[in-house]
Amino acid sequence: MSALTPLVLPRSREGDRAVVVQVHGPAALFSRPELKVERVTYPVMTPSAARGVMEAIFWKPEMRYQILAIEMLKPIQQFSVRRNETSAIVSLDAARRGERVDTVAHRDQRNAICLRDVAYRIHAHVEVTERATKPVAAYRDQLRRRLSRGACFQQPYLGTREFSAEFGKPDETPRHDHTEDLGVMLHTVHHGDPIRMEWFTARLDRGVLHVPARGIEVPAVPEVS
Question: Does a structural domain hold residue 95?
């Protein structure tokens, strides 16, 4: 098998290279949205999960992360587990009114197809919003210092909170050579009223999931009461 080509990514508007975070854990679950009865994972971390890991390590209201690519560092291994979930859903309006779900009364057991022994390298640009009071380099430096110390605001997780992740600076671990069409994948959730979502057609290309700058925007489907 030929050697994998080096990963080449676009630079930021300021001409800077991407920040890189490496994460790993014993298990992960990146749920496919089209499968509702049982949780079935994508074979690789999704951009929304990667953004969640980055924000758990370092985040401020005046900044955001643009995920560029995710490298898969270990072969795909799956396992099945039975998990307790709630069958009741609180709508966004109900949650704003303070309504809650009785999880004991609405408990339901579902199977989940998860990933075992995973590791990824996340490549991202740090972008600043109009609220920023410092140059973008200052936020990148803060992230890198936290990576060096192993500091985080909260423990990152791999798709679901029961699967916590360890993180650190990137090393030279080669990526796993795997290619697969993944179908439609969530790109970004825009929280607001109404909630908007962006999607894209994902492909794992020789161990790399390349993430476009923007997805195709689709309004969230309103819930029927």
Answer: no
